[in-house]
Amino acid sequence: MRSWVQGTKAHGATVGFVPTMGALHRGHISLIERAKEQCEKVVVSIFVNPTQFNNPEDLKKYPRHLEQDSAMLEAAGCDVLFHPSVLEMYPKPGQKKHWDFGPVSNTLEGEFRPGHFDGVLTIVQKLFEAVEPDMAFFGEKDFQQLTLIKKMTIKEKLPVEVVACPSIRESTGLAMSSRNMRLSKEEYQNAHAISRTLFFMKENQSLYTPDELQNKGQQILASSQGVQMEYLRIVDSETFLPLREWNVDVKPVVLIAAFVGDVRLIDNIIL
Fold it and tell me: Right CATH number for 178-270 from 3.30.1300.10, 2.60.40.10, 3.40.50.10310, 3.40.190.10?
C-alpha cells in the first residue's frame, strides 16, 4: 500500500482516502466522488474494526459483502482497495490507544458505547499511517466521530486534511447506513421516525428554547412506534456541551441514537 502511494506521489499526484467497514451504499460512493473531485487518485479501505465494537454480537452481525463492495468500488472509479487482515492491523490482539477530548469523547456515543471511540481513533490513525493520504473523507452522519478524528489528527500531527462530507439520505429522509440492511420491512418504515424528528426540530427551532426543543424532540421520538430512544440531545457542535440559549456564535447540532428492533441507528442535524 505504502509503495503504491509513494510511487503515485512521486509522479505528482495527490491521494484521497475513504476509510470504510464495507457493506457499501450510496453514502460511501458520495465520499468517493468527492475524493475524485479533489484528488487525482483514490484509495478506499474495507476493514471491520474489532476494537470499536463494545458488543461482540454487533461485531458478529456486521454485514460483510466484499465481492459486491469491490464491484461497487470499481464502478465508482476507485483506484485501490486496501483490505488488510485483523492480524496485519493488530499484531498484538486488542491493541488500543486512549484519547480524552473532554465532552466530545465522553458524552453521547462516548457515554453509551464506552471504549468505542478509542477503537475508532486507533484504527483511523493506523490506516492514515498505512495509506499516507493527502486528504481523507468522512461523512457527517457520524458527526461526533468526525469531530474526534479531526481533533486526533491535529493532536498526533498527522499530515492529513480531514474533509467533512454531507450525510446522504434516502428520498424518504432516512440516513443511509450499512446497518439499514439488517432492518426488516416493518422496522425500516419505523426507522423513518428518527429523521422525521430531526426535520421537525430544524423547522421549528425558532418557536422554542434549546431545552424546550430538546424535550419536544424526545417526546416525539419516544412516542414513535417501534423505536426505542437511547438519547436525543442538542449540543454545541464544537464543545459538545449542552445549550441553554440560541447564540449566533454557536452552531448547534441535534444528535440521536435509537434502537429499531435490535439495530442501533444514529443520526444528526445541524440547526
Answer: 3.30.1300.10
Q: What is the pLDDT of residues 71-122, one digit of tens each?
A: 999 999 999 999 999 999 999 876 889 999 999 999 999 999 999 999 999 9
Q: What is the CATH T-level fold of the domain 2-165, as seen in this structure? A: Rossmann fold (3.40.50)
Q: Which residues contact 253 (CB under 8 A, 6 or more apart)?
A: 143, 234, 235, 236, 237, 268, 269, 270, 271
Q: What does the pLDDT look like over 37-71, one tens digit per residue?
A: 999 999 999 999 999 998 888 899 888 999 999 99
Ramachandran angles phi, psi of 193, nearest 5°:
-60, -30
Q: How confident is the model over 238-256, as pLDDT tens digits?
A: 999 999 999 999 999 999 9
Alpha carbon 202 to its chain centroid, in Å, reads 21
Reading the block at residue 108, the C-alpha cell is: 453521547
The helix/strand/coil state of 23 is: coil
Query: For 94, what's the count of Cα atoms within 13 Å in the CB-facing half-sphere?
Result: 2
State the Cα–Cα distance between residues 226 and 228, nearest whole angstrom: 7
In the block, residue with C-alpha cell 456486521: 62
Query: How high is the mean pLDDT of the chain?
Result: 96
Cα–Cα distance measured from residue 194 to residue 196, given in angstroms and rounded to the nearest whole number: 5
How many of the other CB atoms lie within 10 Å of CB of 102?
12
C-alpha cell of residue 12: 505528482
- 227 closest CA partner among 166, 186, 199, 269: 186
Active site residues: 28
